[in-house]
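Folds vary. Our protein:
___
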Amino acid sequence: MSTSLTNQAQNLAYYRNRQCNTQWRDFLSVLLEELDSNVGANEVRAFFNALGMKLAKRFPLNEHDTLEEFEANANQIWRELDWGWCQFSAETTQITVLHDGWPNPDEGSDSFWPLAFAALLQGIYTAWLRAQGGDASLEVNVIPTLPGAPLELKYGG
């Protein structure tokens, strides 16, 4: 690997580690392990999705006329929370959301955190898009990605 790519990887790891305070890493890790072993993955995802819906109410977005304005407002909130950034793209029947730079307390391990955080974002983006006038019968769907890749979510289809 070139020095440039090595430095970039080290920088990304450094910034990602800074997003989740050390005091919370082990707690979040064992909390998710315990939830997964006691109630199962589907229930954990549903729980985090519901948390996301509630968080969207605590951090409402203004109404926007364009997807670019919506993205900018969402990124303002992500900066305040230090939860990364998002990028929206519109296609004929769907909106794709890429979300990266998110806090990952268990990076490098085979943890449930990426799925739980994706479910949290699923709830937030679903609530935000509905509040912007989106179809109330639609939900944002999480698209499986490779470890270390941005989380990908789709609305519509």
About this structure: Residues 52 and 142 are 13 Å apart (CA to CA).
